[in-house]
Amino acid sequence: MNELFGVSMNLIAGICLAATTLILLGVAFIAWRNPVMFKMGLRNIPRRKAQTALIIVGLMLSTLIMSAAFGTGDTLTTSVTSEVYSILGEADEWVTWDAEKDPRPLDEQVIPLDTVEQWKTKFAGDPDIEAIVPLQRESLPVLNTRTKLNEPSARIVGYRTSDAEALGGLKDSAGRPVSRTGNGIAIQKKPNQFRGRVDPKVLAEEIDGKVGDTLQVFYKGLPREFVVKAGVPSSVLSGAIDPSSAAGGAVSFETIVELTGRGQAADAVIISNTGGVKAGMARSDVVVDKLEAEFAGSPYEVAPLKKNLVNFAELIGSAFTTIFVVFGLFSISAGVLLIFLIFVMLAAERKPEMGMARAVGAKRRQLVESFLAEGMGYDLGSAVVGLVAGMGVTYAMVEVIKIFAGDNLGLNLTVTFTARSLVVAFCLGVIATFLMVFASSWRASRLNITAAIRDLPETHPMNPEASTWRGYFRASVNGVVALALPLGLAFLLFGSIGMLLGLPLILVGLVSPWVFVLRGSNTAAPSDHRTSEGPPKWPWILGAAIPVAGWLLIVVPYWIAVGLTVFFRDRRPATLPKWLGILSLILYSLTLIVTVKYILFLLHADNRGEGGILSLMALT
């Protein structure tokens, strides 16, 4: 599986691995800078073994779902791909008549062998093309005269033995060459070592055919008798074109020409690229370009058969994984909430301990670091357990699919895990858990020291502005600030004047979230409650880690917010000036005009498909 939600799995793996590395480096830095608080956090893990086991089981859900989804996707992709390689072998491209370019009766949609010989001569020394094999094929009813079993649509192919040697030749299950002279026919047979597995329809099993049986093949209602010479594996030389193709068999080229009456012509040509079964597929684009240039002006088309089937296999795996992940997001969301609640409960249990730590001089940052140390221990343990459990779920799911849908799939499902998928599942589990641990530890560190030591409920001071005009005014200003960014972007649609109004609103929209973050920090505290602790460091670290965009959209607005907070924290007016009320009326008027009048009404004006000014002119 190479894509998820249309994004390359290599890119996803790189991002996840980089994020996980940064998280581990950050935790290692905490351990180096403050080893005492780090060890205090880790010592809680082995103290309560039963609790630790329950926490790890609760945290592993997201990793389990991801690893099971990726494992199942890899299994489907690998199973279909291996079946394609097994059937097509060294056949890479498929040349046929282009019925859209030159529609003709089916009997006339053929490629003369003389034309094929000209292609062979021209591409004899080509470094990308190894072999060109013409063949005739026909879907015909087949009856076994011994068992009276029949196959209504068996794919019978015929080709010259000398041409097929370039593809390895037709061989039986033991690897011996098979002769198809005269009325001899080789039919598809499942190899002994694969008996019992789920495969596409095989002619020998459909008609219970054995070597020496007489078969009747019907063409246009007339029977022709053949003798089974050998049982051969399913491949392009025995009538199979893809994993879902019908049961088939192979006869000599002279026999099928006599049967169909098409003469010395082929209705399909196999192209084999240089490089073998898998490596040759990398040359498909180059070979297709060469053949299309050669076929210019002729009614022939070339298709990269093997590449298309492998891409289809990738699509199947990606689609199944995407569906699995989308439906699993509900469980992952529940798991994320469970992680948050687990650590909030752990914080509540250790509230007196954290209160005493704060009382003897520990800072909020150090409590957060202690919780992160403990949380990363649980995080890494749950990621490993979830990864292993997800692999077990994958085995179970594949077995269930085999039991209930194996006969209809026509595939031999073999459980497969790629290192890339396992890395992505592990890293996603670590990242999701770490984010929740960080959020819960930050929340747990916000405590009242006295209440924590006495294990009392947290007190929440009453808001003196509640149910007052000043409170209503503050709420209205907060509402405008919350909409500042989308309003500013909307103003940019109205030319230079809109830009003058939009840019300040965009700046307000970028700064205001950080003002909200700083409101509960030591930076915004009154002078009598303020300590020497500086503003939170994680916002500018986050912005610095994101080149260009983070510097402009996170770091700059954050430090503007810090500057505004420091400037206004001790300058809160006792009363509000009247000009603020007038300004708020102007802002609300502009907001209503833009959002209600222009965006909701004028931009949706329509007069027979014409909008904007033209629709207004039509109304006048």
Task: Give the helices and strands, then pairings.
Blueprint: E1 3-4, E2 7-8, H1 9-33, H2 35-42, H3 44-47, H4 49-59, H5 61-88, E3 93-97, E4 111-112, H6 113-122, E5 129-144, E6 150-159, H7 161-164, E7 184-188, H8 203-206, E8 214-219, E9 222-232, E10 248-252, H9 253-260, E11 265-266, E12 268-273, H10 276-279, H11 284-294, E13 300-303, H12 305-349, H13 351-359, H14 364-409, H15 419-444, H16 449-453, H17 469-482, H18 484-491, H19 495-519, H20 538-545, H21 549-568, H22 578-601, E14 606-607, E15 610-611, H23 613-619
Parallel strand pairs: 6-10, 7-9
Antiparallel strand pairs: 1-2, 3-12, 3-13, 4-11, 5-6, 5-8, 5-12, 7-10, 8-9, 14-15
Helix pairs in contact: 1-2, 1-15, 2-14, 4-14, 5-12, 5-14, 5-15, 12-15, 14-15, 17-22, 18-19, 19-21, 20-21
DSSP strand count: 15
Radius of gyration: 36 Å
Mean pLDDT metric = 79
Determine the fraction of residues in helical runs and give it as a percent range: 55-70%
Strand order of the largest sheet: 5-6-10-7-9-8
DSSP helix count? Answer: 23
User: Which word captures the global form?
Assistant: elongated
Low-confidence parts lasting 5 or more residues at pLDDT below 50? 192-199
What is the oligomer described by this structure? single chain
Characterize the main sheet: 6 strands, mixed, barrel
Distance between the termini: 59 Å
Note the beta-strand portion.
5-15%
The SS-based structural class is alpha+beta
Task: Report on this structure.
The protein has helices at residues 9-33, 35-42, 44-47, 49-59, 61-88, 113-122, 161-164, 203-206, 253-260, 276-279, 284-294, 305-349, 351-359, 364-409, 419-444, 449-453, 469-482, 484-491, 495-519, 538-545, 549-568, 578-601, 613-619, and strands at residues 3-4, 7-8, 93-97, 111-112, 129-144, 150-159, 184-188, 214-219, 222-232, 248-252, 265-266, 268-273, 300-303, 606-607, 610-611. It has 620 residues and is an alpha+beta fold.
